[in-house]
Amino acid sequence: LREARTVALASQPWRTAAIASAELSLLAAHRDDAAQQQRFAGMAFARLEQHGLADAPGTSGVVHTARGAALGADGRLGEARIALERGLELRPSAHLETLDALLPLIPVVRALGDQARAEALLAEARTIVGECPDPGMFARWLAAVERSFESRPVWRHDGAGELSAAELRVLRLLEAGRSERQIASELYVSFNT
Prior knowledge:
This protein is an all-alpha fold. It has helices at 2-11, 14-30, 34-50, 61-73, 77-90, 95-111, 115-131, 137-151, 165-175, 180-187.
């Protein structure tokens, strides 16, 4: 992907460069490398916007998905949902493409308090995985999303006036699926803090 991105940047097929950057962002997310996730997602989306491709159907959907996943990891859930929904809308309707867009959307929708939509998306993802002869890593990713439904209550922001902005950010990161260690790292505080 890095080589594809480099070649595409040099020879100017902008869409290819954007898609390679988006895929690198999604890989960084799976490795819990928030800095690289944010960097590559930002580059991918900027490249599409710069060349008027941000709303092009098909493969540009992965760029919106990567951007949404990065926004969600940063605790910007409202923006994340918009980008992830757009990514889902622009993706080809192939099973694995759909799963790749659905799975990061589910925890964001749930964290925003839309339990019914989150459960509908989860049911859709289960159906798709069940129809795939070999869903590969998507089966494991789906299982992780399902476990998060069992282990965490839904958090809703109802104007909890007594919580500080920092406390609200921690809550958003927890609901976005970040571990306590990841949150400490992202907020530049010690794990004990």
